[in-house]
């Protein structure tokens, strides 16, 4: 079929077939598919067939062979161009190049024509059309050698040319050439190995035939046949020698260099193929000369290369006949293989374990006990494929050896069965591993390979109940406990059919076969344990650990079998045993297991429900009556209760609490008795700790069960009112217990309070449950304060201080971890209240400020809380963050005093915390624009909040806080930096701006952080007027409707408040006088940069009047520069203050007079006069409003050589020039709105 396709495609292209050789071959160049063609279209055809993944590859190869026989130069040139095209190169090798140029020159020419725009080439391209390219490419090479193996490959032309080309390409600097040619050379080598193997087989057969013929009697011997066989053997030997030369050329020219290529894919190709050679032709390749390359590469940095090494070795070790040749390699590289079981790449680790399993299968003596133990512990790995592979290794090592006598003997059951010893072995292994809490992981690891043993529950029951046989050693108590735990895990695995928690991604859909197996297993386990469980409970009734595990078995039963199998009497026996256990034990785990068992058996879907429900009611009636009776006597005893009575009350209360967790006990009215007990404990203060804890927990269950009934909608209105009253009274009771002297009681009260506040918050009415609105409870300020104080006192403490919460345990590592886990749960409970807006968000400041100090213990919880609060309210979250920094700053001031050292560890710690907070805002400044603006606003206000009692010449007490605030300056948008800087000016006096002492450095550095990068995106009002007056519009030229008036009483700058009189404006201006230390260049209105003119003071304030111009205020920073220059020129210390005041008075008078006259300050060709440095942002706006006519004012932005055209920028809403444009005034700006809040 492919031949037909080829012919049709050739017909469409108007070219000759592959077997034809026209007269014009080698001439008449043309273009086809974007490639230069002059040798027909064979190369395009070969490449297209491989690219499309056609199945009839042999037909294409046969056509090429015919073409080669007709004209080998043309056909070979087509094959060369095929390899070039498969590398993604656009160049084409011409006949002239092929005849006259060396391979190196051809490759250099192709490299020059390679497409460097993209790094993709066919082997790496994605998409459906390239999906099968690699497999088709490899298949083509294999088919080509197979079809040519009897003639063409021995002509000393075709193979020599191809190998020479591929060797040269494999040494290219171009990755595409190197990758493609290496793959081609390796596949070519594999095909040649196959040819060499066939030649070897034919030689052996010929030799055997020759020996057989020669051993015949002389009369029967055929001399002609002997000569023919000798000639055939000679030809085969010659062919084999040629093949060996070819293979040596490829191995030494390509493999030896490319197995350590810089590209991992190329290295992986080499290792994969050498594994094929050793497996295919082991007599020639399976020796240390070739195995060493695999051994060395097992240390490769890339996981995919190491993986290829292991898979190659697996193919060798799988064949036991090759084990003798692998002995030296195994002894040399065994340690490396064992270490790879802990590889960071899970796929590599899995294959390493499988390889060791094959090694173990070949010989038991190769791996030492230490080697095996390093694999054994991996059965507890959280990664299931690794664990399953380790389970297979463990099964092969410990469970697969059986005595031949066992197979010959009739099948026995129980403890006499073959599996009995294997189950004991599993128990011994589990105990020796000392990971007793991970029995479920051990069972899951061995489930696939040892299910028959693990599901032999009859044998397990026999080992637990039957007496040991004569001479058999009985199980110890510890071994029986381990066996019961393993038995429980096997039952759970069979019933649920999914891995344990922590291993695997979740439940998967079972196949029909798996579902049938699951049902069969549940039926069989129910039939066995429904009879055996009562006996097991009776035998181990006093052992809490064993009973706890055994009581979990009914949860996995098929309860219908109790009825269908007529096992009711066994059910009654089970209920009796459970009741006796409840009466015997006070351990919480045992009681909760009994409660869950009753809950599993009390299923209304099954007919056994009534029988179980009666037994449960009788048990609870007795326990509640006993509790009420004991409680009454206990409370009447007064301040000195009897210890035995206290123990009886506690025991009964534990049982009731455990059952109330899973069963509704509302009809017994437990709230009243428990509340009375708790109230007595508060009044007397000597109530035993455990009684209070369980009373709190029981009352908590009462509230939750009442809420469940009310939520169903079937209860009365009185029930809701009763629940509301009980809930509020219980919350108040828990709040009172927060001040208890006992830590465990306080922790219990705190945990219950957090749960109740979250449950009865405003979230309770969501989801269409508006009827529950009367139950919504908002904590008062006192309760919020008590909760926060509890967190600060019991969570944010050093490990050594937490002596009470360890309950007297030894101060070892386990107790410390347990105590930390408890504190983390307490902190998480409180943080949920913040996240769900139950308590005020600003209470999180006390939590956030601990972020650095307790990063290792609670960093993840605090960071997640910050993230969630930011999602709820960005601005409030920012205010909370800055509040936490302010609290730390105040604490530092109280400890170190106002004259602290800014290089101290306390101050540096606050700065580092601010830096961490800043990083949490991310890179998207638009999303956090309002929040960052509000953060700076609060920070500035805090810095200037406390004036220095020594006078205005000294910095405010909190001024150093600006150094901390500067950590957030990088998060401000460039437009907003100007606005924040203007707001900062409102709090500064003229004397502050002139200070240079070290104590003022925080102010200087903060101002510099606001000015850095901010001036490039802002412009002064002066920049709105062209130096040649081109932007000036007359009132007639500008329609009056083009502007909208700003509403009265408002201003577009939220930092400024509107002034009622010009006097207030100038007073505000006096207070806001400043002189920055670092001055940026002034903004110019002219596009020509020139040296500014030196003006006299009078000229700097009042220029020559120009009637056609409006008054323009002077640039802020240039005026600052002038003031500093004036101050530096006057060296007399005595006259500095007087001259500064005179200059300032003169400046104020002249500038105000100039602005109010409405006269211009510039001539057409003069440099712009700078804006008034003394004018505050508020005064500037007020005076501009008074001295300028906005209806005739139009800002024309001149082109600039120093920055992008303004048309390319977004509107600069924070530019003072925008204040002049009334169309901007009506816009609602995010940054301004944040500060208005």
UniProtKB/TrEMBL annotation:
Residues 1033-1044 have a biased composition (Basic residues). Residues 255-340 form the SCD domain. Its main location: nucleus. Residues 13-35, 1024-1063 are annotated as: Disordered. Transmembrane segments: none annotated. Residues 1051-1063 have a biased composition (Low complexity). It is found in: Nucleus; Chromosome; Chromosome, Centromere. The keyword Cell cycle applies. One of its GO terms (molecular function) is chromatin binding. It comes from the Eukaryota. GO terms for cellular component: chromatin; chromosome, centromeric region; cohesin complex; nucleus. One of its GO terms (biological process) is cell division. The keyword Transmembrane helix does not apply. Residues 196-249 form a coiled coil. Keywords: Cell cycle, Cell division, Chromosome, Chromosome partition, Coiled coil, Nucleus. Part of the cohesin complex which is composed of a heterodimer between a SMC1 protein (SMC1A or SMC1B) and SMC3, which are attached via their hinge domain, and RAD21 which link them at their heads, and one STAG protein. Belongs to the SCC3 family. Component of cohesin complex, a complex required for the cohesion of sister chromatids after DNA replication. The cohesin complex apparently forms a large proteinaceous ring within which sister chromatids can be trapped. At anaphase, the complex is cleaved and dissociates from chromatin, allowing sister chromatids to segregate. This is Cohesin subunit SA. It comes from Cyprinus carpio carpio.
């Amino acid at each position: 079929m492919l031949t037909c396709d080829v012919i049709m495609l050739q017909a469409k292209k108007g070219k000759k077939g592959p077997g034809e050789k026209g007269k014009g071959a080698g001439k008449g160049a043309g273009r086809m598919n974007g490639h230069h063609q002059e040798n027909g279209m064979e190369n395009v055809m070969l490449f297209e067939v491989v690219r499309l993944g056609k199945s009839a590859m042999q037909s294409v190869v046969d056509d090429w062979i015919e073409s080669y026989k007709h004209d080998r130069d043309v056909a070979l040139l087509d094959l060369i161009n095929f390899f070039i095209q498969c590398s993604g190169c656009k160049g084409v090798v011409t006949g002239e190049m092929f005849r006259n140029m060396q391979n190196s020159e051809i490759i250099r020419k192709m490299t020059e024509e390679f497409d460097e725009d993209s790094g993709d080439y066919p082997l790496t391209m994605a998409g459906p059309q390239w999906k099968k390219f690699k497999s088709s490419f490899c298949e083509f090479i294999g088919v080509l050698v197979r079809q040519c193996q009897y003639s063409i490959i021995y002509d000393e032309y075709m193979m020599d040319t191809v190998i020479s080309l591929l060797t040269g390409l494999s040494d290219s600097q171009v990755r595409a050439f190197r990758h493609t040619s290496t793959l081609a050379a390796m596949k070519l080598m594999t095909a040649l190995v196959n040819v060499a193997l066939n030649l070897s087989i034919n030689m052996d057969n010929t030799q055997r035939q020759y020996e057989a013929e020669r051993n015949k009697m002389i009369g029967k011997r055929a001399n002609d046949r002997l000569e023919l066989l000798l000639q055939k053997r000679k030809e085969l030997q010659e062919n084999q020698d040629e093949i060996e030369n070819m293979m040596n050329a490829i191995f030494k020219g390509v493999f030896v260099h490319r197995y350590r290529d810089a590209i991992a894919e190329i290295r992986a190709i080499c290792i994969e193929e050498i594994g094929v050679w050793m497996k295919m032709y082991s007599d020639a390749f399976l020796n240390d000369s070739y195995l060493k390359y695999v051994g060395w590469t097992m240390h490769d940095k890339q996981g995919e290369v190491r993986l290829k090494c292991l898979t190659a070795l697996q193919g060798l070790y799988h064949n036991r006949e090759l084990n003798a040749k692998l002995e030296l390699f195994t002894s040399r590289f065994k340690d490396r293989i064992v270490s790879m079981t802990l590889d960071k790449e899970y796929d590599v680790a899995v294959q390493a374990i499988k390889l060791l399993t094959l090694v173990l299968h070949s010989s038991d003596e190769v791996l030492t006990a230490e080697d095996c133990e390093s694999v054994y512990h991996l059965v507890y790995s959280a990664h299931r494929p690794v664990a399953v592979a380790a389970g297979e290794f463990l099964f092969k090592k410990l469970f697969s050896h059986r005595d031949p006598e066992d197979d010959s003997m009739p099948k026995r059951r129980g403890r006499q069965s073959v599996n009995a010893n294997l189950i004991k072995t599993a128990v011994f292994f589990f105990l020796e591993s000392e990971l007793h809490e991970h029995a479920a992981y051990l069972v899951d690891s061995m489930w696939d390979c040892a299910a028959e043993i693990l599901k032999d529950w009859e044998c397990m029951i026999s080992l637990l109940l039957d007496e040991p046989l004569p001479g058999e050693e009985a199980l110890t108590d510890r071994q029986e406990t381990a066996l019961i735990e393993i038995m429980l895990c096997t039952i759970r695995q069979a019933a649920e059919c999914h891995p344990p928690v922590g291993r695997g991604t979740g439940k998967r859909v079972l196949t029909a076969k798996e579902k049938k197996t699951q049902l069969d297993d549940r039926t069989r386990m129910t039939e066995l344990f429904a009879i055996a469980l009562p006996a097991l409970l009776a035998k181990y009734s006093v052992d809490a650990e064993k009973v706890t595990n055994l009581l979990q078995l009914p949860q996995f039963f098929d309860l219908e079998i109790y009825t269908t199998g007529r096992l009711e009497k066994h059910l009654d026996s089970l209920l009796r045993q459970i009741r006796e256990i409840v009466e015997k034990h006070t351990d919480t785990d045992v009681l909760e297991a009994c409660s869950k068992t009753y809950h599993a058996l009390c299923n209304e879907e099954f007919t056994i429900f009534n029988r179980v429900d009666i037994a449960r009611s009788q048990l609870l009636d007795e326990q509640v009556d006993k509790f009420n009776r004991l409680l009454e006597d206990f409370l009447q005893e007064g301040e000195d209760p009897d210890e035995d009575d206290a123990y009886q009350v506690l025991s009964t209360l534990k049982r009731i609490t455990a059952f109330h967790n899973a069963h509704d006990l509302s009809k017994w009215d437990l709230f009243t008795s428990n509340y009375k007990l708790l109230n007595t404990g508060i009044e007397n203060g000597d109530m035993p700790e455990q009684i209070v804890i369980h009373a709190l927990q029981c009352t908590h269950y009462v509230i939750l069960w009442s809420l469940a009934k009310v939520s169903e909608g079937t209860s009365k209105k009185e029930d809701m009112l009763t629940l509301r009253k009980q809930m509020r009274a219980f919350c108040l009771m828990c709040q009172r217990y927060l001040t208890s002297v006992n830590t465990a009681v306080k922790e219990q009260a705190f945990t219950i309070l957090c749960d109740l506040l979250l449950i009865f918050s405003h979230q309770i009415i969501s989801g269409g449950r508006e009827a529950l609105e009367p139950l919504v409870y908002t904590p008062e300020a006192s309760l919020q304060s008590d909760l926060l104080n509890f967190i600060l006192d019991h969570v944010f403490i050093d490990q050594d201080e937490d002596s009470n919460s360890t309950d007297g345990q030894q101060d070892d590592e386990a107790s410390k971890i347990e105590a930390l886990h408890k504190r983390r749960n307490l902190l998480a409970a409180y943080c949920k209240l913040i996240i769900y807006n139950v308590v005020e968000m600003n209470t999180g400041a006390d939590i956030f400020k601990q972020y650095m100090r307790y990063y290792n213990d609670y960093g993840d919880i605090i960071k997640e809380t910050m993230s969630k609060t930011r999602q709820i309210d960005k601005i409030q979250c920012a205010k909370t963050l800055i509040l936490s920094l302010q609290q730390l700053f105040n604490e530092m001031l109280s400890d170190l005093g106002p004259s602290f050292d800014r290089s101290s560890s306390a101050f540096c710690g606050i700065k580092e915390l601010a830096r961490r907070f800043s990083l949490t805002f991310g890179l998207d400044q638009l999303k956090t624009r309002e929040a960052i603006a509000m953060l700076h606003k609060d920070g500035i206000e805090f810095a200037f909040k406390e004036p220095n009692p020594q006078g205005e010449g000294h910095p405010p007490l909190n001024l150093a806080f600006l150094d901390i605030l500067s950590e957030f300056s990088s998060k401000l948008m460039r437009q907003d930096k100007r606005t924040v800087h203007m707001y900062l000016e409102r709090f500064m006096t003229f004397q502050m701006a002139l200070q240079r002492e070290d104590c003022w450095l925080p102010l200087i550095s903060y101002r510099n952080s606001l000015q850095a990068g901010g001036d490039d995106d802002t412009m002064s009002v002066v920049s709105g007027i062209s130096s040649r007056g081109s932007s000036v519009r007359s009132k007639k030229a500008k329609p009056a409707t083009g502007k909208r008036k700003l509403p009265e009483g408002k201003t577009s700058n939220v930092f400024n408040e509107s002034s009622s009189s010009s006097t207030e404006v100038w007073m505000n201006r006096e207070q806001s006088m400043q002189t920055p230390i670092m001055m940026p260049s002034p903004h110019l209105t002219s596009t020509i940069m020139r040296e500014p003119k030196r003006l006299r003071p009078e000229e700097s304030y009042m220029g020559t009047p120009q009637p056609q111009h409006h008054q323009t205020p002077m640039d802020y920073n240039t005026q600052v520069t002038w003031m500093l220059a004036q101050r530096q020129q006057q060296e007399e210390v005595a006259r500095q203050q007087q001259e500064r005041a005179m200059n300032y008075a003169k400046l104020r008078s002249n500038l105000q007079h100039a602005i109010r006259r409405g006269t211009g300050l510039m001539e057409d060709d003069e440099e712009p006069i700078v804006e008034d440095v003394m004018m505050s942002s508020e005064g500037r706006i007020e005076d501009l409003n008074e001295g300028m006519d906005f209806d005739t004012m139009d800002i024309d932005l001149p082109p600039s050589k120093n920055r992008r055209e303004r048309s390319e920028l977004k509107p600069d809403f924070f530019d003072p020039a925008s204040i002049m444009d009334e169309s901007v005034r009506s816009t609602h700006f995010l940054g301004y709105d944040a500060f208005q809040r």
